[in-house]
Design goal:
By secondary structure, this protein is mainly beta. The chain is built from 1 helix and 7 strands, in the order βββββββα. Helices cover 5% and strands 16% of the residues. The strands form 2 sheets. It has a 5-stranded mixed beta sheet with strand order 5-1-4-6-7, with no helix packed on it. Strands 2-3 form a two-stranded antiparallel sheet.
Length: 162
């Protein structure tokens, strides 16, 4: 139960929304369009055929970083209003169940990192389920660019070896 008194189910995992952090394409008035590139897309879903980088090269879900001070609370994240931890099935706060990965969203660097990021308390790595169903650890030291390649479903770029 969150400190707000709401009985909710919290979760330790988050869906991959790609490098943008959005689960849909965002149209900015008089600005650029930010095209969604993750495997979870709001409202319409995603077919395996749309994951052109290959199911074994694309992240599906990963461990969700939540700072200890924010666990089970409505403590806001980087925008000052959206909670870092809330109900797993909270449809009006995507930050509860999604995360982005890449240069703008590297893996959490410490327990006190207050960004909406993937991250783990496992020493040295973070667990991810890939789209092919395998579960593999990813090193915490992964280059954010390479993390972004794993989070994008359709960039058609090879994943460099570590």
């Amino acid at each position: 139960m969150l400190e707000t008194g709401l009985p909710v189910s919290a979760g330790d995992y988050a869906a991959n929304t790609g490098t943008t952090g959005y689960d849909l394409t965002v149209r900015i008035p008089h600005g650029p369009e930010i095209v969604h590139n993750g495997v979870f897309r709001a409202e319409t879903g995603m077919r395996f055929a749309e994951i052109t980088d290959g199911l074994s090269n694309t992240l599906l879900v990963g461990e969700k970083h939540v700072p200890p001070a924010a666990m089970g609370t409505a403590l806001p994240g980087p925008d000052g209003k959206t909670p870092l931890d809330c109900g797993l099935y909270d449809g009006h706060n995507p930050s509860c169940n999604t995360r982005g990965g890449g240069p703008l969203f590297p893996l959490a660097s410490s327990d006190n990192d207050f960004g909406w990021k993937f991250g783990s308390r496992h020493p040295g790595h973070c667990q991810f389920a890939f789209c092919d169903g395998t579960v593999r650890p990813v090193r915490n030291t992964i280059d954010p660019f390479v993390l972004g390649l794993l989070c994008q479903r359709n960039d058609n770029q090879p994943i460099p070896g570590e």
